[in-house]
Amino acid sequence: MAGTVTVPGSSVPSTPLLKDELDIVIPTIRNLDFLEMWRPFFQPYHLIIVQDGDPSKAIKVPEGFDYDLYNRNDINRILGPKASCISFKDSACRCFGYMVSKKKYVFTIDDDCFVAKDPSGKDINALEQHIKNLLSPSTPFFFNTLYDPYREGADFVRGYPFSLREGAPTAVSHGLWLNIPDYDAPTQMVKPRERNSRYVDAVLTIPKGTLFPMCGMNLAFDRQLIGPAMYFGLMGDGQPIGRYDDMWAGWCVKVICDHLSLGVKTGLPYLWHSKASNPFVNLKKEYKGIFWQEDIIPFFQNATLSKECDTVQKCYISLSEQVREKLGKIDPYFLKLADAMVTWIEAWDELNPSATPDAVAAAGNGKAAAK
Amino acid sequence: MAGTVTVPGSSVPSTPLLKDELDIVIPTIRNLDFLEMWRPFFQPYHLIIVQDGDPSKAIKVPEGFDYDLYNRNDINRILGPKASCISFKDSACRCFGYMVSKKKYVFTIDDDCFVAKDPSGKDINALEQHIKNLLSPSTPFFFNTLYDPYREGADFVRGYPFSLREGAPTAVSHGLWLNIPDYDAPTQMVKPRERNSRYVDAVLTIPKGTLFPMCGMNLAFDRQLIGPAMYFGLMGDGQPIGRYDDMWAGWCVKVICDHLSLGVKTGLPYLWHSKASNPFVNLKKEYKGIFWQEDIIPFFQNATLSKECDTVQKCYISLSEQVREKLGKIDPYFLKLADAMVTWIEAWDELNPSATPDAVAAAGNGKAAAK
């Protein structure tokens, strides 16, 4: 089928896909020994390590990896006063890595995640699957009951409109986790021994108009298509909330993808999530979020973006205004967050000047004038 | 978890679930030898066989099954002039079986479908899985990335609003097919050798606001919740179209389920679809539908039902009016179909008097008056 990515199964490809077009972003507070297991899959790529916490601590990276490491001092130096939009003492800091990347694609992973095995016992090359997901279209406008129609051995089923079979560009690929599932504190407490052992061999598009809980543990996206919306909010040190960084990004991203007709996929690849975080610590971080999400989700379900919002940046600024106006009533935190959303976009455009819409437009005009 | 149905894996349960509350509806033109393979799973249940085509032909049913068989003469006798809403020479005739059933649940299956095996090599009890799907809630309002949260070993992930974790009643369970996938004629022609061998171990709710191509080959539903919307339309003999019977029902059902906050699930169970139908014959039946669906799907995506539509019947009559008004412009066929939709509801209410809203209301009033 046209549009299908024909790369070998989950073996290590001889020429790594998108070798010079993808960065791997890793937030961490410890030595990155976990990379040893990923070496066959990650070593060809550039890593962006965002060191959280004490910047004077040295983080060891296994030999042979190509990386840049940014600690809090670097973030402050690079962003100046705008560094206020980057969270501290929370994995939300990872979004700084999205901003300084110069590549078209980003894959981000937590440092307690390891290589999982598929049901045949073979190591899963998670990055390769994400790339397949991103390089093949999505189907947000109508549901295909045989899942991803672009996958080998699958197609659109009877009754799927032919006009929609080209699909939409894929902006986000959301992967899953075997072993420790991504549960909130209450569920962790109620089901301390629950492990995810079900390998669901599917990738599917989350339909237009439907929100989902996006987890940042195993996530890839197209920076050019959706990067400026991948802001992980204000979490951790000095903030009333934690563990909602990826959720916040996911709500914003999905609303904007729906508006711009971009696709969001979830499902494969799985990785092995090794360690459950402490549910008591998590409850402390989450409990305001547990209340707030009851209002935030209807807010995002009803958020609308005007026709004038034709870039991710414009969409994001419009969302920040709606956050200020509608969520500011819930708690002053959201006023601060709305400000930070604007700062984030300013910082993004400063670090990515060629990607700003004005610059692109200007470049386009220049070319036209030169003809 | 509360709401989880705790029945054994895919083994034959000692007491069949819903034994006296479920009918199996089978449309056919031939002897039902295929039932032999289903005997361990189907024998405890009542079958409703709808014989299509020549009513003088005798259909053999293997011994030991409890069944009623209706041929065209029976349909004409039972419905009188209203029999015009039941298709002839098309498997759409099966919906007559939904109407004459007196049970709460219906499972319908094609006679070229056999028992499939799960990846461990065990026979899949498709009916049992459908019942599990119907008896556990759906999650139409927000997407759960670990699929069915009510399944053993699964739950709602972090970021899933707690207010939505009770879910919604499940009205429809849509199962899938191994071996021959449910493709349209063009796809059959382009990929004559494609077989579905991917077993995706998941059940998921199709989100509110999203339409899907519902296939009638392997389908179960709650008659009380959604029965009157399960009309398979006018297809086959004397009609300009075929092979869109289940699609039509699926579009109507999904719009009404969304309006009434009912859930629609898809995924497990699989069955083994043995034989591809002739793509040339199929193309002849389908080709008008291939054009029309480009208009019909946006029509259903934009259809709205008022607050007054608080029963399936009222919703369905409202849809019939919208079909007449908006789709009638495409082809006079839709005017005839809109009429048939009304006739269907009249016939349904005639055969199911206690289930009509007025009768229920009257019974309620009677009780109140007697106090």
From TrEMBL, chains A, B:
Spell out the subcellular localization from the entry.
Golgi apparatus
Site (Required for activity) location in chain: R158, R165
**Primary location:** Golgi
Q: Does the keyword Acyltransferase apply?
A: no
**Reactions that this protein is recorded to catalyse:** UDP-beta-L-arabinofuranose = UDP-beta-L-arabinopyranose
The answer, when asked if Cell wall biogenesis/degradation is one of the entry's keywords, is yes
Q: What is this protein called?
A: UDP-arabinopyranose mutase
UniProt keywords, alphabetically: Cell wall biogenesis/degradation, Glycoprotein, Golgi apparatus, Isomerase
Q: Name one GO molecular function term.
A: UDP-arabinopyranose mutase activity
Give coiled-coil spans as residue ranges. Answer: none
| EC number(s) per entry | 5.4.99.30
Q: Name the Pfam families for this protein.
A: RGP (PF03214)
Q: What does this protein do?
A: Probable UDP-L-arabinose mutase involved in the biosynthesis of cell wall non-cellulosic polysaccharides.
Q: Name one GO biological process term.
A: plant-type cell wall organization or biogenesis
Family, as annotated: Belongs to the RGP family.
> What are the glycosylated positions?
R158
Q: Which organism is it from?
A: Hordeum vulgare (Barley)
GO CC term, one of those recorded: cytosol
Top EC class of this enzyme: isomerase
